[in-house]
Amino acid sequence: MSFNHIVIQNIVRDKWTYISYFLSSVFSILVFFFFLITAFHPMMDAIDANSSLGIAMILCSMIVYIFSFIFII
Questions:
Q1: Interior angle at CA 32, CA 28 and CA 33, nearest 5
Q2: What keywords are annotated for this sequence in UniProt (predicted)?
Q3: pTM given for the model
Q4: Are 47 and 1 in contact (CB under 8 A)?
Q5: DSSP assignment string, 11-71
Q6: CA dist 21 → 28, 44, 63 (Å)
Q7: SS3 3
Q8: Cβ–Cβ < 8 Å for 71, 27
Q9: pLDDT tens digits, 12-38
């Protein structure tokens, strides 16, 4: 039994675990990417960082970052 055979058996046996990990990682990165596209859009420069909307955007950015980190781990 070679190392490659053991690796392939392990992947095939646990394919649903790998698929769920991959999908949760893709979902969290996709949400983070969409949020950052919205946050750094050129029209968002008109919003003051000290306003309530600016603070909410920064807070939401941190929350999305933490959830993305947790999903990937």
A1: 115
A2: Membrane, Transmembrane, Transmembrane helix
A3: 0.60
A4: no
A5: HHHTHHHHHHHHHHHHHHHHHHHHHHHHHT-GGGGGS-TTSHHHHHHHHHHHHHHHHHHHH
A6: 11, 33, 20
A7: helix
A8: yes
A9: 888 888 888 888 888 888 888 888 888
